[in-house]
Design brief:
Elements (H helix, E strand, L loop, with lengths): L12 H11 L8 E6 L5 H14 L3 E6 L10 H7 L11 H11 L9 H16 L4 E6 L6 H11 L7 E8 L13 E4 L4 H11 L5 H11 L3 H6 L6 H5 L12 H12 L3 H12 L5 H8 L9 H5 L3 E3 L6 E3 L2 H10 L2 H14 L4 H11 L5 H15 L14 H14 L3 H15 L8 H9 L7 H15 L2 H14 L9 H14 L5 H11 L8 H11 L5 H14 L6 H13 L7 H11 L5 H17 L3 H18 L2 H18 L2 H15 L5 H17 L3 H11 L15 H10 L3 H14 L6 H14 L2 H12 L8 H17 L5 H15 L2 H13 L17 H11 L4 H8 L3 H15 L7 H6 L16
Parallel strand pairs: 1-4, 1-5, 2-3, 3-4
Antiparallel strand pairs: 6-7
Helix pairs in contact: 1-2, 4-5, 5-6, 11-15, 12-13, 12-15, 12-16, 13-16, 16-17, 17-18, 18-19, 19-20, 20-21, 20-22, 22-23, 22-24, 23-24, 24-25, 25-26, 26-27, 26-28, 27-28, 28-29, 28-30, 29-30, 30-31, 30-32, 31-32, 32-33, 32-34, 33-34, 34-35, 35-36, 36-37, 36-38, 37-38, 38-39, 38-40, 39-40, 40-41, ...
């Protein structure tokens, strides 16, 4: 079956349905429709589709497409629209025929009066419409000449009684005769993101990921831009092998579409717009100074009236309605105009040296070491964000740093300085999602260097880690870098800092001691008080039990001293340390702020692990849905920018989450994929998380032998470890051993964990170790140990471990026929249901059923509240009173008491009077099921 014309228009299904209804006369008494929208949104494409569909439906179509140069030619639009009907003129009355032929230029005489023309055209259209319905299509009506506009307006207001439809298109903000016709208006806006992606991928399927993102951002849903922007790029630019310019080149069609609204503006307005386009960060006051505007004069007023820009009156921020308008303004300016605008902006930005340096650099045409050094300082401000000496307006992003350093390299008179700056740009590029630029920048920077610098090694190590996950090669490069540079380091020593951060990334993902020893060597080159975030991270990973209280206090103090816009290079090591010490919750807001700042044009390689760390924290605090949302954000950001290393880390974490939820198949699939990738690369921490997921999946499903095998593979020593994630696996090790009859081994594990001091790391590890001790204890000794574990301070902050210990205690109590078993089993069930641990919830439900308590078979909803009277009756019945005795106390009949009891049993999830006491003990004072504890961060 042949599809309808226009069916391939992406994202315009609703508009096509409206046009179909209009052509079929299903749109009420309306004689027409005006499509209105910005340049390039697809108004003409919709008109084309409407015309093709009308022809397919048997209608006659008349079209006019007005252009500017014909706007002064009388009846030019009517001539184009009606000329196909010239042979019908002979059917008209003589005076009408004479008017129509003069419009066509087929008869001598002056141009007819518009009112006469309107009458004659209406007669002609009525004659033609007798044969078949008629669709009149007028595109770009703002350029229709006045005489045609008057005649057409006369006609459109009088075609209701004819099978005639008028369809027009106009640019937003442009005046036309249609404004006076009271036509319905359909605003044609940009495409939504999914439709934009579909259109771009269908037309340009081979764009590199970074190029694809850039085009989507620049096009902002504009269909013409999505089709045309890649066309002006070279093949290497489209693939991502060459960098894209700051402003993408525009095709002729795009320049025509977006520049036409600018060309007619006054010269002072175009100059002010050019300045705003050259520096999107400057506000209205800077433009005033740069343009030399006199008091009371507003050069941008015509641009606002033309709806090209918005100006925030409060802060003076200038925003272009469409990003391509900004590009068109710059493309329209000649090189001399751009240089003059840059110089004027530099003169107006004396209080912002970084921006001033950038504009001066854009205005010069030859080498200039002074400007190159100024750009160095501008780039350094991105690294030093958050320091008191760097003002808010001076702080740039990591992407700004790359651009500044590349330009500084171009301005460098000496080859050595050029090389150094390009290597620094390459290092920053590893953080900004521009991994494809790193090899080229390193190659360009290496041409003038006698030997690679430490920062070149660090940039290469970052690239190897982020892209391929080759941490072994990265470690070797960083070892060589430190061997080649033994000087004492300072906080603003880029070379040492670069090596340090690259080495930290390698170290936290391996269990081998060599990278950590190398990191300690690098730290020793700084003053003892320097690099506190890295030092705290080192201690949290390597010596978490030596002085745990002091370490946690040091972390809290370090977070407290951070400014609100802390540099990601300082925040991420602290966040890693906090996760290792189970202490991130109180500082999540700082991490979240950093993510929002850096995810668009900033240090994306820091935003992705930040999302992963927040995900980890959400998991351990029982907010599993939130954790998976954060993980998905991280995955999308990592995939979009080519950070395959972080994709694998997040997938390993998600594998553990799937296992805890009880989705064993998904957990095993994710685990196997991650293990296959991580094991050959020696990324032991990632591999350990993946194997932990397989162990957890087996344990949750009751396959303890498999769980024992898998947990033993996490650490070949088989002993509890203070490493990551070993410090959190003590309970898993012990439970797997106990459940498979290896009780002596389990007790050895408990003793080893205590000797290692794992319980001192955090309240979470204290709970884990205490729970493990209870699980491994003799039957006669277990009860007090379970009670002690559950009574630990902050135990309820860790709902997964807390509920597992409650379940184990409830199982022990049930074996000893203690009626308190129901209390702990009910609490465990409520927690498992709340956090989404479906398989463990079912296990708790089965245990409760064995005690005589019936619970819903699916995920339990919160228990319905008891009324005050139901609560009184239940409490009296629980202590053994009969219905008659209860009635006497509450002045009720015994039958009413029985009726109340019959109704409250389902609310409590029980079936008999004997289960009342345990059920009430599992209730809060307010009458609803009591949680195992608040999941507060």
């Amino acid at each position: 079956m042949t599809s309808r014309p226009g069916a391939d228009l992406v994202g315009r299904a609703a508009e096509l349905r409206l046009l179909d209804a209009l052509s079929a006369g299903r749109d009420g008494d309306c004689p027409g429709l005006l499509l209105r929208g910005g340049p390039g949104v697809g108004k003409t494409a919709l008109l084309d589709a409407a015309a093709a569909r009308a022809v397919a439906d048997g209608m006659r179509v008349l079209r006019s497409s007005a252009v500017e140069f014909e706007a002064g030619m009388t009846y030019s639009a009517l001539h184009q629209l009606l000329y196909p009907l010239r042979r019908y003129a002979e059917r008209l009355a003589g005076h009408h025929r004479d008017v129509v032929e003069r419009i066509f230029g087929l008869a001598p005489g002056p141009s007819p009066d518009p009112s006469a023309a309107g009458t004659a055209v209406l007669a002609l259209l009525g004659e033609v419409a007798v044969e078949r319905p008629l669709l009149m299509v007028a595109d770009d009506v703002r350029w229709i000449d006045p005489a045609s506009a008057t005649a057409l307006g006369f006609v459109v207001r009088r075609i209701n009684d004819h099978p005639i439809v008028f369809l027009a298109a106009a640019r937003s903000g442009a005046e036309s005769f249609c404004d006076q016709l009271d036509l319905p208006v359909r605003e044609i806006g940009p495409l939504a993101e999914p439709e934009s992606v579909e259109l771009l991928d269908g037309r340009w399927p081979d764009l590199g990921p970074s190029v694809r993102r850039r085009v989507l951002a620049e096009a902002a849903g504009n269909p013409l831009a999505l089709r045309e922007l890649p066309k002006e790029l070279s093949a290497r630019q489209r693939s991502g092998h060459l960098p894209l310019p700051a402003l993408l080149p525009l095709s002729g069609r795009l320049e025509t579409a977006f520049a036409s609204a600018v060309e007619g503006l006054p010269a002072p307005t175009r100059t002010a717009l050019l300045m705003a386009a050259l520096d999107a960060g400057v506000g209205r006051p800077v433009i005033r100074r740069a343009a030399g505007e006199a008091d009371g004069f507003d050069a941008l007023a015509p641009a606002r009236e033309a709806d090209l820009i918005q100006v925030d009156a409060r802060v003076g921020r200038i925003t272009f309605r469409h990003r391509l308008t900004r590009a068109a303004i710059v493309h329209l300016a000649c090189p001399g105009e751009r240089r003059r605008a840059h110089l004027a902006l530099a003169a107006a930005l004396t209080d912002v040296p970084e921006r001033r340096a950038w504009h001066l650099a854009e205005a010069v045409t030859g080498p200039d070491e002074t400007l190159a050094r100024a750009l160095d300082d501008a780039a350094l401000s991105a690294w030093r964000r958050g320091e008191p000496g760097i003002s808010d307006r001076r702080r740039g992003t990591a992407s700004d740093a790359v651009a500044a350093l590349v330009r500084a390299g171009e301005l460098s008179p000496r080859p050595g300085d050029r090389s150094r700056r390009l290597v620094e740009a390459a290092y920053f590029a590893t953080f900004t999602g521009r991994l494809g630029d790193v090899p080229r920048l390193l190659a360009d920077g290496g041409r003038a260097a006698d030997r690679p610098t430490g920062l070149a090694f660090a940039a290469t190590a970052q690239l190897l880690t982020h892209d391929e996950g080759d941490i072994d090669a990265a470690h070797r490069l960083l070892t060589r870098a430190l061997d080649d540079n033994t000087a004492t380091a300072t906080d603003d020593d880029w070379e040492h800092c670069g090596i340090l951060y690259a080495l930290l990334l390698v170290s936290v993902h391996t269990h081998r001691p060599e990278p950590w020893r190398l990191l300690k060597t690098a730290l020793d080159r700084f003053e003892p008080t320097a690099m506190p975030a890295i030092r705290l991270c080192y201690e949290a990973y390597v010596h978490p039990t030596t002085a745990s209280d002091a370490l946690r206090k040091g972390l809290a103090d370090a977070f407290a001293e951070l400014p609100a816009d802390a540099a990601p290079w300082e925040l991420i090591p602290l966040a890693c340390a906090a996760v290792a010490m189970d202490a991130l919750s109180d500082h999540r807001y700082l991490v979240s702020r950093m993510i929002e700042r850096e995810r668009d044009g900033g240090a994306i390689a820091m935003a992705v692990p930040a999302l992963m760390l927040l995900c980890h924290d959400s998991y351990v605090h029982g907010r599993w849905d939130e954790a998976e949302r954060l993980a998905q954000e991280g995955l999308e950001l990592a995939a979009a920018h080519g950070y395959r290393f972080w994709e694998r880390q997040i997938r390993a974490l998600l594998a553990t989450g799937a296992a805890a939820r009880g989705d064993g198949d998904l957990a095993r699939t994710r685990s196997e994929e991650t293990t296959t990738w991580a094991a050959p690369r020696g990324i032991e921490v990632t591999e350990a998380y993946a194997r932990s997921a397989r162990h957890l999946a087996a344990m949750v499903q009751g396959d303890y032998e498999e769980a024992y095998v898998q947990v033993g593979r996490i650490d070949p020593s088989g002993a509890p470890s203070t490493g990551i994630p070993g410090r959190w696996l003590v309970l898993d090790l012990v439970e797997a051993a106990v459940r498979t009859g290896r009780t002596d081994e389990a007790r050895e594990q408990v003793a080893a964990a205590r000797t290692a001091g794992i319980h001192r790391i955090s309240s979470r590890t204290a709970l884990i170790c205490a729970g493990a001790e209870a699980v491994a204890a003799d039957e006669d000794d277990a009860g007090p140990l379970f009670e002690a574990a559950l009574a630990l301070p902050h135990a309820a902050r860790w709902p997964w471990e807390h509920a597992r210990i409650q379940l184990a205690y409830g199982q022990w109590l049930r074996r000893t026929r203690d009626h308190h078993a129901r209390r702990y089993l009910s609490a465990a069930l409520e927690t498992f249901d709340r956090i989404g641990a479906r398989a463990m919830a079912q296990r708790a439900r089965n245990e409760l059923r064995a005690t005589g308590v019936v619970t819903p078979s699916g995920p339990a909803a919160p228990a319905a509240a008891l009324t005050v009277q139901e609560r009184q009756i239940a409490e009296l019945a629980a202590v053994g009173l009969t219905n008659r005795q209860i009635g006497e106390r509450l002045f009720l009949s015994h039958r009413t008491v029985g009726s109340h009891l019959h109704r409250l049993y389902p609310k409590l999830g029980i079936t008999s009077r004997a289960a009342l006491r345990a059920a009430l003990e599992a209730m809060s004072p307010g009458g609803t099921a009591r949680a195992a504890g608040p999941a507060v961060p």
